């Protein structure tokens, strides 16, 4: 099953919860930090998950661009481009960071979550049929 890691700022959790649910409904395996149990090293769990996926969805908002954790996750995603596919998704107006500027982003601003899930699912389906 296709494994997906969504990189986001906790301040944008509502946006991501809806998107994650939409992708799961489409049969995609979305790793969630909500699965981290009390007492576990949350940072270690995130690092391990980020290194085992097929696709990264980088949710771009002012909050995610400002987050140290999210920037680390973006770095992991970019370092694994030979093994995994990176999909930047612009969710709110923000200047695209230089290290992501070579990747075409998906514009998720003012797009219904259902439609956005459909677009991402389609990108993944097309990529897997290559």
Please render the helix and strand layout as text.
Layout lengths: L2 E5 L5 H13 L3 E3 L10 H9 L4 E6 L1 H5 L1 H12 L5 E6 L15 E2 L5 H16 L2
Parallel strand pairs: 1-2, 1-3, 3-4, 4-5
Write a brief caption for the model.
It contains 5 helices and 5 strands.
For the record, the CATH architecture stands as 3-Layer(aba) Sandwich
Give the C-alpha Rg.
14 Å
Under CATH, the topology can be stated as Rossmann fold
Number of helices: 5
Strand content: 15-25%
Q: How is the biggest beta sheet arranged?
A: 5 strands, parallel
> According to CATH, what is the class?
Alpha Beta
**What percent of residues adopt helix (DSSP H or I)?**
40-55%
CATH superfamily: Toll/interleukin-1 receptor homology (TIR) domain
| Unreliable stretches | none
Description:
With about 130 residues, the chain is an alpha/beta fold. The protein has a single domain, classed as Rossmann fold (3-Layer(aba) Sandwich). It is about 40% helix and about 15% strand. The chain has helices spanning about 15-25, 40-50, 60-65, 70-80, 115-130, and strands at about 5, 30, 55-60, 85-90, 105. It has a 5-stranded parallel β-sheet, with helices on both faces. The two termini are about 15 Å apart.
């Amino acid at each position: 099953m296709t494994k997906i890691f969504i990189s986001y700022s906790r301040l944008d959790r509502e946006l991501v919860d809806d998107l994650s649910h939409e992708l799961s409904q489409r049969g995609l395996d979305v790793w969630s930090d909500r699965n981290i149990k009390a007492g576990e090293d949350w940072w270690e769990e995130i690092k391990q998950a980020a290194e085992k996926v097929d696709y990264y969805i980088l949710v771009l908002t002012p909050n995610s661009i400002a987050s140290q954790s999210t920037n680390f996750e973006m770095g992991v995603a970019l370092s694994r481009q030979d093994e995994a596919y990176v999909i930047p998704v612009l969710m709110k107006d923000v200047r695209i960071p230089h290290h992501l500027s070579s990747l075409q982003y998906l514009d998720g601003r003012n797009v219904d979550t259902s439609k956005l899930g459909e677009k991402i699912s389609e990108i993944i389906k097309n990529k897997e049929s290559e």
